Amino acid sequence: MGKKVLLFADVGIDDTIALIYASLSKEVDIVGIVADYGNVPRKMGLRNITYLTRLFPFSPDTKVILGAEKPMTGENPVFYPEIHGEQGLGYLTPPEDLSPNGYSENFYEVVSIINKYAGELTIVNTGRLTSLASMYILFNDLMDQVNEVYVMGGAFWVPGNVTAVSEANFNGDPIAAKIVFRYAKNLTIIPLNVTEHAIVTPQMVDYIQSKGKAKIIKPLLDFYYQFYKRRNPSIVGSPVHDALTLIAAINNSMFSFGTYPVYMDINSGVTKGQSIADLRPSPSMTNSERRHRIAFSFDYPLFYHDFMSIMTGETV
């Protein structure tokens, strides 16, 4: 069996690519999915998870749990149909009669999963950090039993994708991000400056689609690519931010890391959600501050071979 992973996700296109990858990989065992708001409203995310778990070979024991519906800032979340499509799945529209079933409205189920896999569970958070932060507030001692936490978020030394300096997951709930930075003891951050280089080209998409295992990848990433192409005409494909974060959790050797104190701007305006790593050799730290591991770069050829092999079922 693969690594036990509890995924917190706001299931739009890039989260869907991560889930497809996970369903096809022997290195990953998705034991639970927390359906959050973010790319799409929580209700839509839950429906998309239902669609994917019926379409791909997930374990029938995989628990689906309702997570947060709004951020800790108290603001109404902003959604991005121009990026992820009206249904959160690009050009796809799930069946109209698709109704979620087998999910839990009891967030306490997350506690059961952590207890069940104490010491071996990996949490991967690919959306807003609201639900994950809630776990640190409500069950801080229990979170010590989580082996490791991987978060897709932040923009260090590169432009943001929501404001000039902030990335969407941190910008969407900077209070939650700050809580996670404060309490997490085993946190790895996979930021935008790494994930934006995890490019899947249209040629890669066409080849994967021709093999039939990933099934719906083309209408997802064709839509995603069109958005990125409008924003940046020089881009050659779609960045799969969340899939790269999941890959990091099972293949550290693909990445280079540094470990630093990380600070979060929770103010309004252009700096809302800005993530700041203190690179000074001897940063001034209080007893309440922690150092967190940040990915600086990754080996694209290794990513290419891994991603293509998993998504096609062939050795590439």
Automatic annotation (TrEMBL):
Pfam families: IU_nuc_hydro (PF01156). GO terms for cellular component: cytosol. One of its GO terms (biological process) is purine nucleoside catabolic process. One of its GO terms (molecular function) is purine nucleosidase activity. Residues 5-304 form the Inosine/uridine-preferring nucleoside hydrolase domain. It comes from the Bacteria. Keywords: Glycosidase, Hydrolase. InterPro entries: Inosine/uridine_hydrolase_dom, IUNH, Ribo_hydro-like. PANTHER family: INOSINE-URIDINE PREFERRING NUCLEOSIDE HYDROLASE, URIDINE NUCLEOSIDASE. This is Inosine-uridine preferring nucleoside hydrolase. It comes from Fictibacillus macauensis ZFHKF-1.
